[in-house]
Write a structure and sequence with these properties.
The chain is of the alpha/beta class and about 500 residues long. Helix content is about 30%, strand content about 20%. It has 17 helices and 23 strands. Strands 1, 2, 3, 4, 5, 21, 22 and 23 form an 8-stranded mixed β-sheet that branches. β8, α3 and β9 form a beta-alpha-beta unit.
Amino acid sequence: MLRAVRLAGPGREHLADNEPVDLLLAGGRIADIAPTGALTAPTDVLDGHGAWAVPGLWDNHVHTVQWALAAEREALGDAGSAAEAAARMRAVAPLPDGRRVGGGYRDALWPDDPSLALLDAATGDVPTYLINADVHSVWMNSAALRREGFPGDDGILREEDAFEISRRLNAVDPEHGDRAVLRAGERAASRGVTGLVDFDMAWNADAWPRRVAAGFAAHRVEFAVYPFDLARAVEAGLRTGDVREPEDAPAAARGLIRVGPLKVISDGSLGTRTAACSHAYPGDPGNFGVLSVPRDELIELLTRATGAGLSVAVHAIGDRAASSALDAFAITGAHGSIEHAQLVRQSDLARFARSGVVASVQPQHALDDRDLAGMLWDGQDGVGYPLASLVAAGVELRFGSDAPVAPLDPWQAISAAVARTDDSRPPWHPEERLSLDAALRASVRTSLRPGEPADIALCAADPRTADGAQLRAMPVVATVLAGRLTHLS
């Protein structure tokens, strides 16, 4: 039983007042809700002392291993120039595999350009890798390029070449990677997370059962497959929603791991200036971004996935990419989501709703990118980082972080959606702000009602009265997954 808690998320609309209630949990579900003291208490009781309960939070876009390993890499998000970033990498101790790795920078905001000569001068013969915050480009020195077997006149690898480098950097010893994921799962639970969608570029169908066997039981997981593994997934009989776990999975972990969607990356990113847009990027009249998966190929992929029982998640950041993705969903009848949707044509807002495609968005990106968007997308006609516009059109939203691009913390996403600012500046495009209730709905998969899964986060403050800064720092006192505590502060 969760004793004396107040409901602050979906489900509270069924209560007559805001007085504390008791939640009786049984069989992994909410069995009953009644005024405090009205139910016979079981032997296992957690007294909430009036804490506010919301359904367990989801992060619907995570690169799990890369996020887990980020703690071992040099954080460069505050580097003010290419020269500063290169100089800082000089002092970074190589990892056990001999590589120096940093990440999180945004070179489009730097006054100087990253170059091979600059990084070589600072880092010498130690293979050195700097991963852009958007993960769509990697800055490498000559030693790293030689080690990986890539040419690179300017030291920058972009798009598919950059993804390949990330795959190699993330392919650490499985025991090492699994330990990092176990620790990361504990951190996620401490922020009220009870589920995530894993978009790691790896064969996750074996990795997650292995982690369960090693003790992972922190949250639910839906894992993606990529086009390079689509044939393998079809041959293995993977279908979206199916449970994937070892036969001897511990009781606490049963049913947590499920097959997710086919992930297709159809264009680039804003920071790398490769998101496919209607108008050219400033100062580069021939650059409209890249459609890395042409329309006909995208239709073919969605057709194959749908026939095999897989939903589809299409990465589309620019407005041209979003239109192409919506075309493919309409033609194939596929189900799934468009990931990011950072620039959307006005005419496509209603198409989102008619198609039933989910908009899987990362509200923190709007704040992290507001300066970049002002520089690079000022001449675009589409709606930038839409939230309220999508909701008004009747589109289902799901929130995520794209960790490690942004921190895996649903409260940051909720705050960004509600406040549209995370510093002293006024809200950015305040017309796209959401209500707290709408932001919470986009962050959960369940509600606080009898019969629903007992996935619950208890907060020390009332989210309904919190401002943006308070939401961002929301104290989570306990997290419950299927009726089992995964975090208690």
